[in-house]
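User: Assemble these into one structure.

Assistant: Restating your components, then the assembled model:
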Amino acid sequence: MLEPGTEIDGFRLGDVIHAGSMATIYRLTGPDGPLPLIIKIPRLGPGERAVNVIAFEVCRMVLGALPQSPHHPTLVAFGDVETTPYLVMEHIDGTRLDDWVQRAPNAPEEIARLGATLALALHDVHRQDVAHLDLKPTNVLYRPSGEAALIDFGLAHHAQYPDLLAEELRYPVGNWVYMAPEQVVGVRCDPRSDIFALGAMLYQLATGRLPFGNPSSRKELRRRLYRDPLPPRAHVPATPDWLQEIILRCLEIDARDRYASAAEAAFDLANPSHASLSERASRRRRSGLGALARRWVRARRFEPAPCPPPSLQSGPAPIVLVAIAPAQPEDALFEALQDATRRLAAADDHCRIACVTAVPPAASLSGERYEDTATGRHIKHLVNLRRWAKPLQLAEERVTYHVLESDKPAAAIVDYATMNEVDHVLLGAPRDGTPTRLFPGVCAVVAAQAPCTVTVVRSRAV
Amino acid sequence: MKLALFADIHSNLEAITACLSHAKALGADRFAFLGDLVGYGADPVAVLDLIEQHAADGAVVVLGNHDAAALGRPDDTLSSHAKVTIDWTQAQLGDKQRAFLAGLPLSVRQGDMLFVHASAAAPEQWIYVTSLREAEDSLRSANASYVFCGHVHEQKLFYMGADGHPMPFRPVPGTPIPTGKHRQWLAIVGSAGQPRDRSNKACYALADLERERLTFFRVPYDFPLAARKIRSAGLPERVALRLERGA
């Protein structure tokens, strides 16, 4: 323990706020700045666990990657892991969820308010590919402004970074009371594990009890791979249907049976009258021996649900190719394509629009006038494409223009879509369905051969 | 100091040019070319001359198995397509390029970094580092904080755990990964000139040596031109297609 007044890299230490098994946290008394600060120093040295230094690295990596948000502390500075490891971060002056846990059972409305704010904070970090994985009532703070903030990211997982804690898997790391079944078997990449912990904390707020007790051995810990908790109503008969439904849904053994996102849990908590109720809502006892025996057998070879893919791997901005005929046969079709494109662009503000036209090769057509030369014709087509796209009023960086020279317009569009990993092709077809002279059968070929979704656009009959 | 790392360039001038300008725009001031400079592609002379210029300015360059084959050293592991392109490459190279290749080392050590084409455990055996076992062997023999290599064409990062076993990680392009030198890291930077993971974007990595961060990148380049050159040179169609499809 360091004396108050000690300086580390210019940071002046104050009182100890928290002395845990992994790290000690001090208030900082200087230098003065816009934020109240704390310093967290991992417990290192003989007799301390190796996981302490890894948790320090993880905390630095994850907090360093998160942008400023009310839902977690802001990382201000950090020291070298080999010489002077420390993290300086914002001191969140809030009330710990633990204070409400001490007062359990709490009123359902109060639980819903606390739970909904916490779920929103969780959703914020989940959206940035971070799973906290060590949620407990002492790691959740409520700011005076009402927002929930998560602290202590030492055991967190960031899907875009190597998981430094994976090596510690032989012994499940984290708090056993709130740990999800998949964490028990070593899965560390599922944000839905946090939804399980949310359910466990809501259970505690509602009943004053722990859903799975306080396991002291791995054997006891593994029990949650098959044993469902007593329904909250067995402890507190006045528990409303919706609250029991939400809690038990969060506590489902298989992550796929829980809420798919923390935002969904937040919605149900904030709008209890809209929560759809299942058999869970009215449950009075745990599942019977038959179900238990089946789950016990399955738990011996527990197969956790696969982790959802990180946001960045779900694909970059989609590309929409709009095929525009060099000379549109009907104005109505021209406009119908504009409308369809406008709707797609509005539905996904990340998607990029590639305006493409296919024309016969120019070499055979070079003539006297500039408009008839290869470049002249090319420019004329580009101008047409731009004119077509102008009314859509899309940001410049979202739209590109391409003139493909080919005798086979359909094949050229398919090739373009393949090479550029296009996600969606839009192309117009004349209303009566007969192929036009200019664009014979293009729709049929593109629809059959394109490597992606194809939408055929027609103008409405007048 | 930012160190740009390129591997498996395979005579692809368009790809290496695009990667180099991408890296330079991000402030790269040191360069390493991790072997397989030639083979498959249609620009062996231009690529070797470009890399030789960088070597004259201090860049690290190591020998790859295709480079060794281009020098006439027998290699039974090469596919038939690869052999065809190596025979063609041999005919293109002049004395200058041959002398440059012949002077390349199998591995280079600089401080806590080791540069090698394949596994540091036995650089001349061209072992593919695809499993934890091979990663562990390479890391142990390297005795360095960072092992930078290629040979395997897909980007991958292995990091040594506290228990002495490496863990695999598939990097997300563009995300800087904190790679503190108190740990051991083995980075397969991915193929610049012949990506094979169903993406036709060129691979490379950029190490920020001061901030101890490593970022893997995928760079779009003019692959239709590179493929066209392969076809006009009369090299196997499969090799050109591979650039277009990234597989």
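Chain B has a mean pLDDT of 94.
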